[in-house]
Write a structure and sequence with these properties.
Blueprint: E1 2-3, H1 9-25, H2 32-36, H3 44-50, E2 57-61, H4 67-74, E3 79-84, H5 87-99, E4 107-111, H6 117-120, E5 126-132, H7 142-151, E6 153-164, E7 188-191, E8 209-211, H8 216-225, E9 229-236, E10 248-249, E11 255-256, E12 267-273
Parallel strand pairs: 2-3, 2-5, 3-4, 5-6
Antiparallel strand pairs: 1-7, 6-12, 7-8, 9-12, 10-11
Helix pairs in contact: 1-5, 7-8
């Protein structure tokens, strides 16, 4: 249900995520054994759009258990830092880094609220600030997020965001064909659903979550206002999960509408850079 932002939104969300960390770590969805054996979890469009990370420093905001973060290290990043507000998630990420033989200098993980990232991370700026795939919906204040994220982009570096398109949350859940919810709503969405996307049948206690919808224009404008130059905004006709029953899974693991259905954007990506002299 929609409601004004509750005072305990952060505590409720943290309790929910903390409880789900061990469920995710044990799930087939994340398949940590396959990851440790070499499976790359990054999406093809992200790899193409971010480009070569060899020798660069990368900060991953809202990293969860660190699989994406560590995948960038595998692709040659000189240093990766993952940040998440869930301490259990950070502990799992640190364990995975150790299992991969990565030193703390090469792959560090820090527990912190994303709004406090500038004070929590080991360095003041990074070549690449990376975030997305279900991150912004947990934050009530996008301009504040953009200011923090932009402050951590080194001159000549860039922020890269890959996120689920907010249009998908406006359509009916059954068919994905009818506009049902307000695209421009600023209210919080409070939910009490048990389980998790990695295991819908998991027994869970901390089920309350508080989320927000952020129009794409708000996100892009916030990054520009924070001093970054928008290099591109790309919209993608695929999702990472079966958002609607009609979606068809493709060989690359993405989900799309059948060929006889009109397409809509289900994800988007943004690259925003800081000039070398900035």
């Amino acid at each position: 249900m929609y409601s004004p932002t509750p005072d305990d939104w952060r505590e409720a969300n943290r309790a929910r995520w903390d409880e789900r960390v061990p469920i995710h770590a044990a799930s087939d969805y994340y398949d940590l054994d396959a990851f440790l054996a070499g499976r790359d979890v990054l999406r093809a469009f992200e790899i193409a759009e971010v480009g070569d990370v060899t020798g660069r420093t990368l900060l991953h905001l809202q990293c969860h258990i660190g699989l994406d973060t560590l995948s960038w290290a595998r692709r040659g990043a000189a240093q990766v830092v993952g940040l998440d507000f869930s301490e259990p998630a950070v502990e799992v990420a640190r364990g995975l880094a150790g299992s991969l033989g990565l030193s703390q200098e090469r792959a560090a993980f820090v527990p912190s609220d994303v709004y406090d990232a500038a004070e929590a991370v080991p360095d003041s700026a990074y070549d690449i600030v990376y975030t997305g795939t279900g991150a912004l919906n947990w934050l009530p204040d996008v301009p504040r997020w953009a200011e923090v994220a932009a402050s951590l982009v080194a001159p000549g570096g860039f922020l890269y965001l890959a996120e689920f398109h907010p249009l998908t949350d406006c359509l009916d859940d059954e068919t994905g064909s009818t506009v049902t919810y307000d695209y421009f709503s600023r209210d919080a969405w409070v939910d009490e659903s048990p389980g998790t996307y990695a295991d819908f049948d998991a027994a869970t206690v901390h089920n309350r979550s508080v989320e927000w919808q952020h129009p794409v224009g708000e996100v892009v404008s916030a990054l520009a206002a924070a001093g970054l130059r928008i290099e591109f905004l790309h919209e993608h006709d695929a999702s990472l999960f079966a958002r609607y029953p009609a979606l068809v899974r493709h060989a690359d693991g993405s989900y799309r509408f059948p060929a006889d259905r009109p397409r809509i954007p289900m994800m988007y990506s943004v690259k925003a850079s800081r000039p070398a002299g900035g």
